[in-house]
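User: Before I run my own analysis I want an independent prediction to cross-check against. Here's the chain; please return only the structure tokens and, at the end, one sentence I can use as a sanity check.
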Amino acid sequence: MQSDYPKQGKTAAIVAYITIIGTIIAFFMNQDSKNQFASFHIRQALGINISFYLLGALVSIFDSWAISSAFYIFILVLWVFGLTTAIREEQKAVPFVGPQFQKWFSFIK
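Assistant: Structure tokens:
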């Protein structure tokens, strides 16, 4: 692997973390080059976005600011971790659920 390989997919990796629309745009940006660094971060961002919507629907059942706050802090931590690793050109999975995202979304290459 080349030393500048992550640099080639850095833009798509960063764009992937900008909402679900950014994830979709990054997916299409990566279709031609098939950069593994970008694909890794697209899978992570897609997992974070889907978790946000699914867990958000579950949390909305409870009428508690403590539960809602914990949910938003959890998602924010995952998002910031993923974005900073993309900016630093590192390939680290987000805490707790990152390895699962890589398995579940392995169709993204």
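Sanity check: The two ends are 16 Å apart (CA to CA).
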